[in-house]
Amino acid sequence: MSGLAARRRPLVLVLPALVALAFLVVPPIGLLVRTPWATLPDRLFSAEVGTALRLSLICATLATVICLLTGVPLAWLLARARIPGRAVIRALVTVPLVLPPVVGGVALLLVFGRRGLLGQYLYDWFGVSLPFTTAGVVVAEAFVAMPFLVISVEGALRGADTRYEEAAATLGASPWYTFRRVTLPAIAPGVLAGGVLCWARALGEFGATITFAGNFPGRTTTMPLSVYLALETDPEAAIVLSLVLLLVSVVVLVSLRERWIRGAA
């Protein structure tokens, strides 16, 4: 009976599902159709694309490293530590997921700008100014990407078997040793998946970057910003740049496919 029910597909559900599928699939197909394949190699190896791609890769990687070093401990705190207001902290961690990126950029300016809450001390004491610099790009990307890592790692921690950690503690292992040698290896797939998602989100960041770091070629102009600029002067270049980001997204999805399949099973 269950097999028969599974084979029945109500038309009222199938049609909206097909519309949703077309809505999601047709735009990338349109990008592929309109790609100037004849001039693609020349455009891909142009100095402009190379500079933007190199800057994007470096900044996204640095942002991911920052997120790993700080986000993994934060995820552990949310999953394992008994702290007051944990639900509120978790809600605050996920705010960048729903916050408009431009608003995030404004918030970063108010905090890390030269006259910001923290930025004034960074500038007065150390001469460090983050806005409109490459470091500012890294900060903006880390801000919007970290929730992806924290959520993934927290989920992995909640799903991990704690008996091994308890056994290690019983044998006299310190909390830090237990985390390094028992907990971290057990949640490595979750950390890897979160890191990949974090990196992909950082690579595609636009709103917070242009608001906090500006758009200076060779210094803060990442791939998304290059797409935005190229649309005004050279639409074909914008298509090529968009194609590169699309390919990166596909690679990320393929790399995480096995993990998602195991989770769905």
Characterization of this structure:
With about 260 residues, this protein is mainly α. The chain has one domain: MetI-like fold (Orthogonal Bundle). The protein has helices at about 1-5, 10-35, 40-45, 45-80, 85-95, 95-100, 100-110, 120-125, 135-160, 165-170, 175-185, 190-205, 205-210, 225-235, 235-265. Helix 4 crosses helix 12 (about 190-205), helix 9 packs antiparallel against helix 12 and helix 10 runs antiparallel to helix 11. The mean pLDDT is about 85.
Describe, in short, the structure shown.
The chain is an all-alpha fold and 265 residues long. Helices cover 79% and strands 0% of the residues. Helix 4 (47-80) packs across helix 12 (188-203) and helix 14 (223-233) runs antiparallel to helix 15.
CATH architecture: Orthogonal Bundle
Model regions low in confidence, pLDDT < 50 over at least 5 residues = none
Please give the CATH class. Mainly Alpha
The mean pLDDT is 86
How many structural domains are formed by the residues? 1
Radius of gyration: 22 Å
Structural category is: mainly alpha
Q: How much strand content do the residues show? A: under 5%
Number of helices: 15
CATH T-level fold name: MetI-like fold
Q: Strand tally, please?
A: 0
What general form does the structure show? globular
Q: Please report the distance between the alpha carbons of the first and last residues.
A: 22 Å
State the fourth-level CATH superfamily.
Answer: MetI-like
Sheet with most strands:
none
What is the string of helix and strand elements? HHHHHHHHHHHHHHH
Helical percent range?
Answer: over 70%
Membrane topology: Multi-pass membrane protein
Organism: Nocardia veterana
InterPro entries: MetI-like (IPR000515), MetI-like_sf (IPR035906), ModB_ABC (IPR011867), NifC_ABC_porter (IPR006469)
Main location: membrane
